[in-house]
Amino acid sequence: MSVQDVLWIVLTVQLSFGLAYFENNQRTQDYDVDKNGSVHHKNWVRNEMMDSLGLYWLKWWINANENSIYFEVTVHTRGFAGLGFSKDGRLARADMVLMWVDDATGHPNVLDCHGALHPSSGPPLQDDTQNYDVLDGKQNGTHTILKFKRKIETCDPFDIPLSADTFKVLWSIGENDPIHGNLDWQGQSRGVKALQLFSPMFTKNSHSIEGIQKWDITVNNVTIDRSMDTLYWCKIVRLPELTGKQHIIGYEPLLSGKYERNVVHHMTLFECQSKIYSGSDPSSWDLWVRSAGTVCNSNLLTPRDWDSCSTPVAVWSLGSDGQFLPPHAGIPMGGASGVSYYMLEIHYDNPDGKESVDHSGFRIHYTPNLRTYDSGILISGVSISETQLIPPGQKKYRSVGICGPSCSSVMFPKDGIKIISGTLHSHQAGRTISLRHVRSGKELNPIIVDENYDYRHQKVHQLANETVVLPGDYLITDCSYETKYRKRPTFGGYSTKEEMCLTFITYYPKIEMSGCYSMTPVREFFEMFRVYQFYSLNMTDVENMFLYNSDYTDYSKQAKNATNKPNSGKTSKEDVIYQESLLNKLVISDPAEFHDRTFLSHLNQLPWHDPLFTKRVEQAFITGTHMTFCRVSKDSLSIPSEIIRYPEFTAYVKPPAACLNYLFTDNEELRSGSSQFFTDFTLSLLLLIQLGLQTTLL
Predict the structure, then answer these.
(1) Annotated catalytic residue 425
(2) Domains plus CATH for the chain?
(3) Whether residue 35 has pLDDT greater than 90
(4) Which residues form the active site?
């Protein structure tokens, strides 16, 4: 074995424990506790393996006093390393930096660059202003290590201002040092990884814990046929034998096959209250444990008792690595008051018509060494229903889900709950999601904001500063969608071609609440579009179909059949969704001008191309009435639903950008043009301001 091989093995072992090679790291993660009992994590350090082989490691941390972010890269090369930040993962317009240690002099170099306007325009371009400061760098026979920093906001039009959003972090490895004048990024290896740069991240090794055990929960050979575009599959499992109460400290996904070929879109593990329904046979649960499972949310196939499986304990979405909790909180399992059964729900998304057999699930990490607080997960946002509507052809259209005082005043403890983290969830049209917080008529700082949401990269947003939510507070999940290239309305639903607007909130102390949702009241939804009655169905029947997932055939024996069928030709999967939609079965009788038209057909004829009309619809849905639901763990619906108006409050105003040039960062053409434009514009603006002041003084 060569000396280089030995060094490589040593480096790999060190990195596996989150240590930086050749570095004496003085930062020790700690935390403060404020007067409300909320934890504020300080001095945290993130360390991420950027590739699948451990050739490129990126470490970073925030220095809030300096408004700076520090980076350290350790790369298996004696050539160059590239690092970049992008909203969409493309090299074009990316904020980039090239790094290397000169082979001749040993001098470390960090070069601030940006991607050309078009990828075909050539290699990255050097920035006029260099905003990365190199701190240290060295190399040995196999590896290059560089440490550098930059301001979070540099006021350079070619640098992306860093934030809590999800960024696509680009990386590249080159065999040789860059040749003078040649900034070619295309090295021997390159890739992209979605990261949240402002979030700490906890792992099994964040704090020394003895006695950690694992529990693997998977489905058994679920077959996904080519014809299945969307499938929700549920499997009941029994808690393993435990010696008293334990704490779940984290969980990871167990995915079948390679990531790029996997059809698993979303997974949730729920607690089941097996004694919730009178007359239920307790022995049925053990029978279900031995079965392979069945289709979820089916009136015909899903046992009614499974409705009691409503409290999440583990959540995974596409692009996530799972979650580990901070050292003072753990999700309880087992013990005298714990549940015995859990339900694993897996959402399969199969748009390409693949045939596969799946055995995915979770690996649960737990310990008998109990932590200070019992933690829980609750779901908040828009109730999944076709009453959530997103018009076609929209660059930005918002929907909101409200968790209001009907839940928080009743279920939250006097001192409130403390939010640890949140997973934001929508489907393909989602672009921006935030979890907003309102108290006493004033909106506080948003708890979570991701203005660069990507449904393919739904990582947990771990909070550096926990947020207290008190009884009487509102939580508002606010989602923005883009449907520029869609020709028909998009509705709320379970397929990725339909939409959701949810936040999975991890918090403590645990309360007996699993969900807090809202939706547009059914009657108001139809009246919004001047529809008041359907053939042979009164509006109460229609409301029941939406609220309780009732079968249309139970109400429609006398209903008029005027289903809107797609045009002749090949039927797309979107056509199938529209054909099966309840809105496509409801035939309008009042008003007369719309009679004999399905409600779906009626929606398709509305002037969605008119921005004033669409804006009125958006605002009417947001500021109008909302039906709120408080789902309690011990009962399927113990707190009655309530119809409320959107709360009146003073909205939170984001602080103005510290940098003038950032006013134009949304305009990609300007941002990627010549920096001379910004220089000229800034000088002109300053001159105008000076002239204005002189005029005022005169």
Answers:
(1) yes
(2) 45-196 (2.60.40.1210), 204-374 (2.60.120.310), 380-519+631-662 (2.60.120.230)
(3) no
(4) 232, 425
